[in-house]
Amino acid sequence: MIKITRLVEVFHQHGVYNRKIAELVGVSESTVSRWVHNKQQPDVHKLYKIAEYLKIDIRDLFIQRAGPMENEATFFRWYRIKMEYVVERLHPTIRSFSCCPFL
């Protein structure tokens, strides 16, 4: 079966047990277990209640998103490496056309 939700990871990250979620949304603990193991899917209203309780974006129940700082750090690290490479490759050319010998 295709994994649709990330409930097991999200519950683990937040230290939440199936029993608490079952009480919150008004279903049995076995129903929540089926959701966690992707044997059955909760409706969007129940997912919204879960996300609201955990204080997360509902999309985090479906996909794992990297934080903005992580994305920025990765981008700038990649950009710095690329720029160093470009400067290293162009430096002899720049020096040969330069009127300043110290470049």
Automatic annotation (TrEMBL):
One Pfam family in the UniProt entry: HTH_3
All copies of domain HTH cro/C1-type, residue ranges: 22-61
InterPro entries: Cro/C1-type_HTH, Lambda_DNA-bd_dom_sf
Family annotation (PROSITE patterns): HTH_CROC1
GO MF annotation terms: DNA binding
Protein name as it appears in the record: Transcriptional regulator with XRE-family HTH domain
Organism per entry: Sphingobacterium paludis
